[in-house]
Design a protein that fits this description.
With about 550 residues, this protein is α+β, with helices and mostly antiparallel strands.
Amino acid sequence: MASQRRKSRLKPFILFLLLIIVLPAILYSGYEINSLSASEALIADIYRRQLDVVLYSLNQFAWDVAGGWATTVGSFVGAGEDEDARSHPALRGFIRRTAAVRAVVLADSSLARITVVADSSAERDLTLRTRSALVASGDRLGRLLRLRREEYRRLEPLMIPEVSAGAGIGGNPGDSTAVLMFALLDPAGAASFAGLVLNDTVFIRSVLGPRVNEAAGSEFLLAVSGRDRSRPVFTTGAASDTVMRQERQLWIFPRYTLGIRLAGSSLDEILRARFERNLILILVLDVLLLAGAWLLYRAFSRELELTRMKSDFVSTVSHELRTPLALIRMYAETLDMGRIKDEVKKKEYLGTIVRESERLSRLVNNILNFARIEAGRKQYRMGPVDLNAVVGSVMNSYADHLKERGFSPVVSLAQDIPVVQADEEALSEAIINVTDNAVKYSGEARFLRVATGRDGPNVFVEVEDHGVGIAPHHHRKIFDTFYRVSDGLAHNTKGSGLGLALVRHIVDAHGGSIGLTSVPGSGSTFRLSFPIDRRQEGEQR
């Protein structure tokens, strides 16, 4: 029932902690994560817009360059109509001068006759490959011709099969091959086609490269990559900086993409680093807040527990005071009225009054000593003390009480143990409290052993019983003020919860220690150890 009341009191406090500490931290963490998502979307849009501008500029420049070459080729073809195309010196000179152009393709409007002019021995192989690509793209070529007749010249990029290893026509084995086809009309209106077979790697590096560097400036890093993306064909930064934020396909070379990112640390990397730093700080703050909440909860819980124990203490002490006072008053009134004529009976009544008075005195002394300890006014008068003498005095004064309770204590005093510097009255009080504790919790067993001895630099007094014992999880708490074991016989036995707390204070004040060995159902052994007075020991020797 007490546990349920305690939980019901803690629920509002737990909800309060969640509302003022945990919930704001979670909301702020969610806000930061959402801010990162919004920032990433904004960054992606910035990159996209910038890349679109750069890509449009590069594509237009590439078309302008290729268009200029197409015009040159058209003029050469018109000027050499009577010459064999393969031996056309102007076309061959153009190819030699223009590294980005591998060959020139010439074809009639029906694609029945296709000629490849190249400064290479691979014309036949390239002719076969180009023929198949042109035939497959007949519809696209027809559109080029219609546009040309409408006074609009358009370049159409076609991909032809890659050149076989060793067949090179001005490029490296395995390079991809693109041909830019355009339509030609002579003055008489006869149509034909021409095309530029480009060395895309050379074109990208030598023609587009300077414009890419110009567009990148010092703010951006641009890279042109092939299909495999293992290594960029051209980049304005280090070759290792190949992770792009946005990529778009080049118009003139569909197999290649242009990528963009900020030079150095990219904006998203900066924001992500900021987010990660903030997230770490938030997590640390959350941990600190949760730790603070837990400590606050623990302190509040302990305060509730202490309040409960104080309430129990007041109730218990009231009962403890009421019982001996009631007995003393009852027996005293009986004797005062002269109703008891038997001298033996009178002596028994007087003995009860004395014992209850002593019990009342011990309880009052415990309360007063506790009050002095709490106020910091408890003082001890130190002097040489014989521990055997203190134990003997306590057992003699306690003999009648023990006999009445059915105990025949076993007292074992070690011979010639050194004296200790202590307050004799305080040691007596500590031994009485431990002995009284053993008597209270002995249950049906009526065994009590009190012994003294020496253990290295200490002397000790042990009090052993065969009572209910103490569970391990209570061992450290039983020396706390007001704490009482809450299960079994120990819970049903009345007590103030001050005795063992006073014992611990007395032992600590004397520089000693308390040891406890206990097994539930088999009893407990308390050992109070005190340091030996070395000066007195030397004098005794």
